[in-house]
Amino acid sequence: MTKPLIYAIDFGTSNTLLAAANANGVLPPVELDVNSDDKTILKSLFYTPDQNEWYFGSEAIHQYTERAAEGRFFRSIKKFLPEPGFSGTAVHGRFIPIHQIIGVFLKEVRNRANLHFGCDVTAVTMGRPAVFGDNQTEDSVAEKRLKQAAEYAGFKDVYFCPEPVAAAYEFRHQLKEEKNVLIADFGGGTSDFTVLKMGPNQFSDQDILATYGVSIAGDKFDGSIMKHHIAPHFGSEITFRLPRTNGDMRIPLRLLSYLTSPADIAFLSKTETMSFLKEAQK
Predict the structure, then answer these.
(1) What's the pTM?
(2) Beta partners for 190?
């Protein structure tokens, strides 16, 4: 088999996939998680119980459960890429930039693919949302960090392709005449929409008529279900009174926002949060 020349990685909020292409065409997606029902999908989950020890995908869930939730567990971390105020977090007492955390994951993805193909691939096309944030600054910050993550993983040549445009490449072969087509990409973190002029022939950048996205997707829907239908059964609407105080209190909105956000729920383990909950429980 001709060695692959370039990888294509869809690093998603919820799931990650990898395919490869060479001079002969596109190769089938790589099996990234042999313990998953769909072996080509690696859940975008990271777990580190100790320094220099990381687990990913279904193994991250298994190890996190086996080790009684010790250490740090990350999910939906892609959400933080466009946030200038979130540059990283402390992991085992050491500050790690967000691009390095994601880079550790992408490095594992690259290593598994290299093992599959038996070669060292250093070129990659990364999928990216139509828009990462609400403004150009956030979008630029996110793409820069994603490129740094890919470089940290060992890639030397890093390219980007908007995810809805990537979806259009496959659909193009189903058309027999030129049409304007709306491509919708509903992900875990963003929902992207692109209008393209498409036909059976190869299209160019000028055929992209409009593209935009919103930060409303799977995680938001999960959070809404959690907030309105599940959390009340676990005390989110209770009132309580701390010792030596007169006024009734409710669970702080910040804690509720953590509880209803897959990316933020790990912050519930902060020392000050746990101390507050213990006092409230009393």
Answers:
(1) 0.82
(2) none
